[in-house]
Amino acid sequence: MSEVPEVPEPAGERSARGLSARVPFQVVEVTGPSMVPTLHHGDWLLVQYGAPVRPGDVVILRHPFQQDLLVVKRAVERRAGGWWVLGDNSYAGGDSTDYGTVPEELVLARVRARYRPLPRDQRSVRGVLSWAVSALRPVSAARSVSRRLRAR
Fold first, then answer.
1. Which residues pair with 45 in a beta bridge?
2. pTM to 2 decimals?
3. Which among 16, 23, 19, 25 is positioned nearest to 48, based on CA atoms?
4. What angle is formed at CA 33 by the lines to CA 38 and CA 126, rounded to 5 degrees?
5. pLDDT tens string for the chain (152 positions)?
6. What are the strands, taking DSSP E only, across the chain?
7. DSSP string covering 62-74
C-alpha cells in the first residue's frame, strides 16, 4: 500500500474542503509499491486539496478502516457511496478490492505532478541526463491509466 506521510490533519470539525482553503497545495512523499509503474517509493507528489476528482485521477485519501493512514490510489469510477479506487500495481493490494467504495469525504486531494529524486548512486552523465528528462512529470489521467483499468 502506498502511504503518504506528513499530510496535515484537519483539526476538530474541519472537513477536507476546509483544509483546502488553508493549504491548497502540498508536497508529499510516496512510500510503498502499490502505484508502480506510475509512482515509485521515494517519489514526491504535488497534491491539490479540494480539486475536483475525475475517473482516472490519482488521489490522496484516508484509508476507510484506518483513518490516520493516508494512501495514494487511482480513482477509477464514482459509485453509490463514493469512489472505487485501485492501485496501479495489482499485486500490491490495499485498495477497493479489499475495502470497497471509499466515501467522497475521505478523498482529500488530487495529485497534479510527480518528482522523482536523482538516485544517490547515479553518477554517469547519461544516467543524469536520462533522469533530468523524466524527473518532473504531470500525473494525468489520460496518460497514466493502465490497461488493467480500461479493460474492466
1. 28, 114
2. 0.74
3. 25
4. 55
5. 455 544 444 333 334 444 445 679 999 999 999 999 999 999 999 999 999 999 999 999 999 999 899 999 999 999 999 999 999 998 988 999 999 999 999 999 999 999 988 878 877 888 888 888 888 888 866 444 444 444 33
6. 25-29, 44-49, 58-62, 70-79, 82-86, 107-115, 136-138
7. E-SS-TT-EEEEE
